[in-house]
Amino acid sequence: MENRLSDGYEAFLHDNRIKVNKYLNRVLWFFVITGPAIAAGVKGGIYHDISYTTCISISVIVVILATIHMFLQKKIPSSTVTCLFVLSALDALIVYMSCSHVSIHLTWFLVPMLSLLFCNKGIYFYAVILNYLMMFTTTLVTAPYYLNIRTDHDSIKAYFADVMSGYTIETIIMFASGYIIGKLTLEYFKKLFSQYTKIREQERSMQEKMDLLDSMAEIYDNVNLIDFVNNTETSLRDEAHKKHGIDMTAQTHTLMNQRIRNQIMPDQTEDFLTYTNIKTLRARLANKKLISADFIDVVSGWFRAQYITVESTPDGIPNTVIYTTRNVDDEKRREEYLIRISMTDEMTRLYNRRCYDEDLREIREGVLADDFVLFSIDVNGLKTVNDTKGHAAGDELIKGAADCLALSVGKKGKVYRTGGDEFMAVVHIDDPEKLRDEIKQKAKEWHGIYTDEVTMSVGYAAHKDQPDASVDDLEHVADADMYAEKEKHYKERGIERRR
User: Tell me: the pLDDT tens digits for 373-393?
Assistant: First the structure.
């Protein structure tokens, strides 16, 4: 920051020199009319000791000096040489006019005062010293002429001493005054430029932020800038960037959220209003970069609402916040799809072992419902089908069993494929025996391409029958019941399982 300020101030002084030289060159060219003006005075009897030749010489000298300075101004416009030349030229012009008996008084001190415009102490000292030397020399040269037309001095020495004493006092006063003025001016310029630089930095920083926010506005469906210092909200999607006041004493939600709330799913409205409450937002966002939450729009689906800290107090309380909403329905659908396939058995489209374990973990953490029933199911004769008809027939048998289970259980619970020919079902029913019969009936109605039938051994354990049993206990009971059913099935068919 300090380097940029120093570089900027030096650039300002550089440009100032160019500008002052430009205007002083115009002043020199303006002085060309001095010759004709004095000539008019000679013709009118105002000047008695000045010739027309002197008038012409003054204009010629001015033209020469102005031309040289113009050349320097174009070649080295900010050079110290150019600055010193124009001041020296003005002094030379005054000397010539004085020696030509054109009365000069205040003009002597004009050149040092003009040098202050360059905002440089060295140039000012040069102008004062040169001006004093020029006054000294000119007064000495013109002393005989003025002694002849005045009667208040007896000798050249007396006249010279009288005039130069006055000039010396005036020079000292002028020098001190000019030095103070120059010093105060430089300090003022430095302070003013420092403030200007800070303002420019703030404007640049703000513009960068606004550009960033404008680019963000293209990404998000809604983008609001919330200013807690001035209590305003501004929609950055609105090209006019119109600010709306926020009444923090009576208002709990911004205008944007008052509009959005009407589109939130009814069961999420309370959560949405809690999340978007601006009276509690600063505390919730303290020392955080952002907070976010997902809600469902009844029209466009899932969207994500985010509060992002832009500026905050030293203790982390946000003063400026960006509020955005962005449709994430596709993202949510992909997420749900990935979760679904990670929890789904690829062959049967039933839930898989991982899903079963996750659900059981949640069930263990809660309280079992009175109608909670755990089913254990196993497909009969799968190995025989695989060995005699091939794995395609075996896969068909598993899919057939899965279809029968899914149709029978329906919305009463969830069915899982937990192994090759093993299934589990978590259901909420009052009559588990009836469901077991339905499963077997569905199995009887099934016919495949490779096999004509599918049979399953179905066991279950109901919480109401064993209220003190845990989920794991019920699982063991259901497995035992399923194996008992399997033994019964093979005995009915006269199949020796060991063989």
Answer: 999 999 999 988 998 999 999
Domains of the chain: 2-197 (no CATH), 220-333 (3.30.450), 343-492 (3.30.70.270)
The order of strands in the sheet holding 372-379 is 351-352, 413-417, 422-428, 372-379, 456-462
* pTM, entire model: 0.45
Tens of pLDDT, residue by residue over 109-148, are: 888 888 888 888 899 999 999 989 988 988 888 888 877 8
479 vs 425: CA distance, rounded Å: 12
358 φψ region: left (φ > 0), alpha (ψ -120 to 50), beta (else): alpha
For residue 480, what pLDDT band results from cuts at 50, 70 and 90?
very high
- Residue 495 in this model has a pLDDT that exceeds 80: no
CA distance 230 to 224: 14
* 457/483 Cα distance (integer angstroms): 7
